[in-house]
Amino acid sequence: MTTPRPNLGLLISLANVRTFSAATTALSEHGMTPRGYSVLELLQSGPRSQRDLAHLLQLDPSRIVALVDQLENADLVERRPHPDDRRIRQVETTPAGEAAYTVAREATESTLDAALHALSPRERETLAGLLERIVRPVEQA
Q1: For position 75, which CATH number holds?
Q2: Which of 12, 32, 50, 54 has its CA 20 to 30 A from that of 39?
Q3: Which residue range is the domain that position 48 belongs to?
Q4: Rounded CA gap, 23 and 112, in Å?
């Protein structure tokens, strides 16, 4: 009798639940949500349009508008006109947003360290590389 293959979908889902739950708790202690943090993370590479954010986070554009509104009301991001296309508004972090991101990043990194304690640094690097290969097609579409 052969051993059944592990259910990768279930394992990925359970790993996500475990890390997401820990990160949610850590972020809430700093007044942030996982989606808000995700927007700030994506903006670390520079301004992005709301459409790009919706695509990358796989959210309906109307949900991104509400999320960016919340972040803007908290002075963490601001909308600015796109330099080449007046129809597009870019979202970028404010100095307060950068500071909040730094604190939130430290909090999420420490929860992730706890969740991934069973993996060596090399295994974590391998896992990150594999996950990037899964996520990259979304970024490029």
Answers
A1: 1.10.10.10
A2: 12
A3: 32-140
A4: 7
